[in-house]
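Subject: two folds for Thursday's group meeting

Dear M.,

Sorry for the delay on this. The cluster queue was jammed most of the week, so I only got both jobs back this morning. I'm pasting them in the order they finished. Each block is the input sequence followed by the predicted structure tokens. Could you check whether the formatting survives your parser before we put anything on slides? The first protein is the one we discussed after the seminar.
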Amino acid sequence: MNPAEMINPIVDLAVVAGEAILEVYATDFDVQAKGDESPLTLADLASHRCIVAGLRALAPEIPIISEEEGLPAFAERAQWPQYWLIDPLDGTREFVNRNGEFTVNIALIDNHRPVLGIVHVPVQAKTYVGCEGIGSELREDDSVTSIHVAETSAAPVRIVGSRSHRGTSLDAFLGKVGESELVPMGSSLKFCVVAEGGADVYPRLGPTSEWDTAAAQAVVEQAGGKVLELDGKPLSYNEKEDILNPWFVVIGAADRDWLALLASDE
């Protein structure tokens, strides 16, 4: 499959899923707890059903992994050369808190790398796209704008951090960086802020799953940035039995050695 040929159909699918989310967002919805105590709403499920049905219609030969569906055994999925990796509603806590900072994430993984990523922001009616060989762009109000990470870090350094999951490791990193501005943000929007040059770096020093990061990683990498584990290796996918990511850093401005600043914080 040529990922570039799938951009428009997948963007359309993400937008439709976003509309299904907003229908629930406008109601007095109930919140359930999943097995890991993370929240679940009817919006998560509505988006999941919409995306899975759409992907199966577009490319029935490509397997799908979704946060809202059981994870196939590693022995099975290790044989997949390509697959879709989706988070139907990334940032459910943001959804529940009604701050608008939640997204629809759809990624195409090829040989353990995200080669196409769509991050749709329903409340803001905008969509980030990253596609290998094409670059990254922001689609908003019928316009398409190419985006790129910052060439050099700002003064003070702009560090994006989780609105819901800040911890002591992030505070230690801020102390090492020196003069900085923390930009709090929810969901995969943190990646997108780096991708469009609005922040210099995003250290993720806490748990995430592969469906949380894949689509936005494609956006960052195709915008000229990097998403690295703390040992310097690119964050990769479907190479182990569990689907949890190690700690990582999203690098926009490459004029500082962010990994050295993080070296002793894991």
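Second protein, same layout:
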Amino acid sequence: MAKIGRLITAMVTPFNARGEVDYKQAQKLARALIDSGSDGLVVTGTTGERPTVTDDEQLKLFAAVREAIGKKGTIIAGTGGNCTRESIKITREAEKLGVDAALLIVPYYNKPTQEGMYQHFAAIAENTALPCILYNVPARTVTNLAPETALRLSRIKNIVGIKEASGNMEQVAKIIQGAPKGFLVWSGNDGDTFPVLAMGGYGIISVASHLVGKQIKQMIELTLKGDVKGAAAIHLDLLPLINALFIVSNPIPVKHALNCVGFRVGPPRLPLTEPDDKSKAAIEATLKKYHIDLPV
């Protein structure tokens, strides 16, 4: 299994003026993110607008990003969904293209039981050799993956970790405490990164790292060295930026922020729209207070 990395950026999907996927800009962004601290990238996750990216576009993105970064960073393919058969199919196709792992979101809309979620994830894992990372984000999926179910799934050989975005620190703690050796917990919320790391979590699958990747990387490194005070200082300093990047639904703010700093990624696809004037002003005012690590 490839070492996936502690700082993973959930990469946006760039679109051109016609609303088409801009593969060349995606390649440029992927290289810039690796150069500014990211160990790897989630391609077509939530931040990459997976619900409005077609399967064909998704597979082309996997191939384009792999070509762009080579082995300089890992690629985690956002292949989960609410249809088990379709998730298996796209995961198999991603594996053929040389991605390093698959990110599997809790099925949304159809509200499965805990047993249904267990069988869903188990079925995908059994049909791929890729390392699989669970993704729990009940604010978007409605259904919460209970820690007991996550720990049950952790016993499947190629289910290697979880992106935990529930915001429930007690739940995160139960998973960290009960997981077998080698099962990794990434924070799924930028604002939770420091406390998750302090409890023994592995890293962060981040949105803010589009802009401040080196600073987040330093926070992780300081935490691992035991410099809690230094890590906490970076965490506290970054919180206003993190809050601005979630002022409306992700990835609306981060796309606007990238466009503002000169890295053009276009607008989001409908049903997402660009931020309203008040949100734009808040994002732009906050950006002015930070050093941007992304090479533009």
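Two things I noticed about the second structure. The chain has a mean pLDDT of 97. The two ends are 33 Å apart (CA to CA).

Cheers,
T.
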